[in-house]
Amino acid sequence: MTMNNIIEQLKELKNIKPRRDWVESQREVLLSQITKQNVAKPQSFLVNSWFLTKSLLPGGFMRFVARPVGVLTMVILFVFSSGLLGVNASRKSLPGDFLYSVKRSSEKMQVSLTMKQEKKAILHVQFAEERVKEIETLAHGQNQPEKKQAKIDMAVNGLKEEMGEAQKTLDKAKEEPKKAQKTIEAAKKVDNMAAALSEKIAQKKTETTDKEIAKSLETAVQAADAASVKAMSVIVEKHEAGEAELSKEEIKQTIDKIDNKINKVQQQVNASAEEMKEVSKTVENIAGGETKLPPPNALLGKEGIGTDTGGSSAEKNQDLSDKLQKLKTKPGAAGQKLSEAKILLNNGDLSSAIEMIKQGAEINEEVRQGVETINKVLENKK
Amino acid sequence: MKRASLKEKFLIFKVKQNKDAEAYGMLYDYYVERIFRFIFFKVSSSEIAEDLTSEVFLKTWEYINRTTEKIGNFNALLYRVARNAVIDHYRSKGRTIVNITDEELFEQIADKRDLEKEADTQLEIENVRNHLKKLKDIYQEVITLKYIEEFSIAEIAEIMEKKKGAVRVLLHRALKALKEIAGEE
């Protein structure tokens, strides 16, 4: 037998593998054992980033870094380089991808290294733009529907987070009167960017036929609108406090924006009212028919859907109708707020008008969430 | 996952820093077949190989979370733990050569091929396994790592804690011994 024959036969031994069922069951056992032994201890991303850097770089390099010249070199390299830690490789990653957490961590690192609050606010909105790109890519992707939805939801939650942070940093920037003009400039950018994002996402929503994706996109629209309203309120507050000057043209533009915002929220309220009517019809049909409804607690998500907690069918129907009745008054209340906003705007009280817009949008969001919950209950009943 | 790749280092980081069980699960997914095979050739029983493989992964987890040392080469660490587990097994149980039955060997083959080809393959595999079994442990180990697991000389050196030159010499002698055994039959 030649050596080549022997080596070829040796390579065949690679086909020896453990049983698949053993591999899978053992994995579960192993993970449950190690989970019981240890509680996962999430740490701050700065601590994580330091230890990650240490683990990825060779030991000799770390000894160099410990010297003063090494420290200075590393600070300069780290601040001006974007190629460390696989950041470049992670840039195109999507929710669910292995490097996605690296991408998010590097974004957070960028924010923490930015000193000025107004610049942080703009960064947050830029990262929200990135979330929208991820949503676009995912929506066109070939993933299984459940996985696609989960990944889109991850991106939408990321967008909500960034918009929320943008609002918080604008609030912090607002507290610095000496930087009022820069704060206004940043707020204008945030407003423009958030409004553009809202339009883009709303357009995507009209293009999608998937109801679940449409709902996720609506959530994203609301988040972008909230950031836009916040930015407008910061501009107006600074101006009304006399901390920054706005030209007549800028004031007119701001008034037009507020007016447009009132109209936009009114359209959203009208859409919610229409959905409410549809849901009411369905609930009335059910109450009139013999179909058994799931227990009312299902609305609150406290019990598993389909769990019978007792009570007659009629009682359950009444309960659902009562809840719907409470929601029914809300579009009217939201509309009321928006009417007041118009009046305040006409009277030149811009900050109060914006406050009314916020309240109207919040009530509308309650309606939207309520209708979504009722729809889920009705769908699960089918 | 390429050995010692960025992904592997990142997973080890997550395990060590955050005690991330799911990250360890991903390492398990990549290495479990190799470690099972490595142990299987030494103990020649799939049941014992399964038990010891489980033990190896648990012990490695405990080691990673106990040590303050940086885990430079997870691959090498796993094989060292595997080798020690086999040694401990023989010490505690007494060395018992369990001949694997034809049926057990047949079950290990993952590919679905037609029966005739399966039988031929089975025979070839049994032959070469018998040859391997007759070698010294260290010869068997270096051949397994080189030709079955397809590690480089540098990687084998790290696993066996030897210099590269010593691994080359060992491999040469192991192949010579294997050829002699195969030539005798």
General description of the model:
The complex is a heterodimer of chains A (382) and B (185). The radius of gyration of chain A is 27 Å and the shape is flat. Chain A has helices at residues 3-12, 20-37, 45-56, 59-66, 68-80, 87-90, 100-113, 117-140, 145-174, 180-207, 211-240, 248-288, 297-300, 313-328, 330-346, 350-381. The relative contact order of chain A is 0.06. In chain A, helix 7 (100-113) packs antiparallel against helix 8 (117-140), helix 8 (117-140) runs parallel beside helix 10 (180-207) and helix 12 (248-288) runs antiparallel to helix 14. Chain A folds into 2 domains: 99-246; 259-382. Chain A is mainly α. Chain A has 16 helices and no strands. Chain B has 185 residues and is mainly alpha-helical. Chain B has a domain at 1-98: Rna Polymerase Sigma Factor, Chain: A, CATH 1.10.1740. In chain B, 78% of the residues lie in helices and 0% in strands. Chain B is built from 9 helices and no strands. Chain B starts with 5 loop residues before the first helix and ends with a helix. The model of chain B is unreliable at 96-114 (pLDDT under 50). At the A-B interface, helix 1, helix 2 and helix 3 of A face helix 1, helix 2, helix 3, helix 5 and helix 6 of B.
Reconstruct the topology from this structure.
The complex is a heterodimer of chains A (382) and B (185).
Chain A: H1 3-12, H2 20-37, H3 45-56, H4 59-66, H5 68-80, H6 87-90, H7 100-113, H8 117-140, H9 145-174, H10 180-207, H11 211-240, H12 248-288, H13 297-300, H14 313-328, H15 330-346, H16 350-381
Chain B: H1 6-18, H2 21-43, H3 46-66, H4 74-93, H5 102-108, H6 115-133, H7 137-148, H8 153-160, H9 164-184
Helix pairs in contact in B: 1-2, 2-3, 2-4, 3-4, 4-8, 7-9, 8-9
